[in-house]
Specification:
Blueprint: E1 8-21, E2 34-41, E3 52-62, E4 68-74, E5 84-87, E6 90-93, H1 94-97, E7 137-147, E8 151-162, H2 164-169, E9 171-176, E10 190-195, H3 196-203, E11 207-208, E12 226-227, E13 240-241, E14 255-257, E15 264-272, E16 279-288, E17 292-301, E18 315-326, E19 328-333, E20 345-352, E21 369-376, E22 389-400
Antiparallel strand pairs: 1-2, 1-22, 3-4, 3-7, 5-6, 7-21, 8-11, 8-22, 9-10, 9-21, 12-20, 13-14, 14-15, 15-16, 16-19, 17-18, 17-20
Length: 414
């Protein structure tokens, strides 16, 4: 009897998104990228059978023309930058469908989808954009297909290099694009949404992609809003760096860090009374950990009533809810004293958004699924990102599901 276990059981595809370098009078960007794939033969823990991962994409860019334009795609049978293919005399293209190609148009596991990637003209990379300005955006929707067998599918960033000023200013979203329309819609589950640095951090150790994203409620958060310890002059110093004992003495740059699974929050700016001695408000952002769903700030006397909740009987309180869960916010201001006088902050209570407990499931074979990645350089950024750069690759890795009920990241030991 022939032992057939040493068949193709694992597959790597590296989608290198290279570098985005910023320079020029305002900003300019150059990027380079490539695709490569490899195979690992392993007959110890997986059963007989082949597993093949195929990728294709549609890339668009919003720049000088102030409208979305096609950049490059695969497949692209006429090489005009728009995803298209001709099968048995019938042409299928993105603009006719209003979305990426899918299973209704093409059998990805047959000979119709090759690995002859064409990036356009003299371009030998997936992304090669120059003279990017604030207000410009780019987007790629990948579609992925497992042939022959279901598989676990991981995604990570690798080869990451960046200047933090640029990475933190580029807004980025990675999501399951359920309808393949290259736009993050309300029903699309979001993997990460924030800055490009947030995307790097989320994918640094790799994530296991969900084989049934359409069965998940859009978004990564549960419906809970979890209360953290109230901070006041009795305990504030235990959570702050630099150590601060009194809420009214909070300064810009102070970090407030809660134990896991709570967040680490940085005060990016503060509001001070005219005499500059007392803090009555602040701007904030999450630098690590979960997003924020609510902040309750106390200040002033509650003798005359006027709180918008009953959480603190010693001072007035004001609640700042973030219905969509937030990574940053502005103008968290303490309520005023009676007589409309400005009051300093006396206490703070943060609430965080826990992630859902949805466990990923195996990616089915012979079924197309889509992953969107969108970035924008906000108009208001200006020259602060001049001469800065970022670089990264996206790596996909798949492994058979059968006899592999507890998937382990292929990069766990790196």
């Amino acid at each position: 009897m022939t032992d057939k276990r040493n068949s193709i059981s694992r597959r790597n595809v590296l989608a290198g998104l290279g570098t985005i370098g910023v320079g020029g009078a305002l900003v300019g960007a150059g990027t380079s990228a490539f695709f490569s794939d490899g195979e690992t033969l392993d007959g110890n823990d997986l059963t007989t059978g082949e597993l093949e991962l195929k990728l294709d994409w549609q890339q668009r860019y919003y720049g000088p023309t102030e409208k979305w334009e096609f950049v490059n795609a695969h497949p692209d049978h006429d090489r005009d930058g728009e995803q298209s293919i001709e099968i048995n005399g019938t042409e299928y293209k993105y603009s006719d469908l209003g979305r990426n190609l899918g299973d209704s148009e093409i059998d990805y596991c047959r000979e119709y989808l090759d690995n002859e990637y064409y990036f356009g003209g003299d371009q030998d990379s997936l992304i090669a954009l120059e003279d990017i300005k604030p207000g410009d955006c780019g987007e790629i929707t990948f579609s992925y297909h497992l042939c022959d067998n279901p598989g676990w599918l991981w995604l990570r960033t690798t080869g990451v290099t960046y200047d933090s000023t640029l990475a933190e200013n580029i807004e980025a979203t990675l999501w399951y694009d359920l309808d393949a329309d290259n736009e993050p819609d309300e029903e699309d589950p979001v993997i990460v949404d924030g800055s490009l640095k947030d995307v790097f951090d989320e994918l640094d150790d790799g994530i296991l992609l969900d084989g049934a994203p359409s069965e998940r409620t859009a978004g990564k958060h549960s419906d809970e809003c979890v209360k953290l310890e109230k901070l006041d002059d009795d305990n504030l110093s235990e959570y702050t760096d630099p150590e601060t004992h009194d809420p009214e003495k909070l300064e810009a740059g102070t970090t407030i860090e809660f134990s896991d699974p709570g967040p680490k929050i940085k005060l990016t700016d503060v509001r001070r009374k005219d005499d500059k001695t007392e803090t009555y408000g602040f701007n904030w952002k999450v630098v690590d950990g979960p997003d924020i769903c609510k902040i309750v700030v106390g200040g002033g006397s509650n003798r005359g009533g006027g709180s918008d909740n009953n959480e603190d009987n010693g001072s007035k309180t004001k609640t700042y809810p973030y219905d969509e869960c937030a990574t940053k916010g502005d103008d968290v201001i303490a309520p005023k004293n009676d007589g409309d006088q400005r009051a300093a902050i006396s206490n703070l209570t943060f609430y965080y958004c826990p992630d859902k407990d949805d466990d990923p499931v195996c990616v089915p074979n012979s079924t197309t699924q889509y992953l969107g990645f969108k970035w924008c350089l906000p108009k208001e950024v200006g020259n602060v990102v001049q001469d800065k750069s970022v670089g990264f690759d996206l790596q996909f890795y798949t492994e058979q599901c059968r006899h592999n009920d507890t998937p382990v990241s292929p990069w766990v030991d790196e």
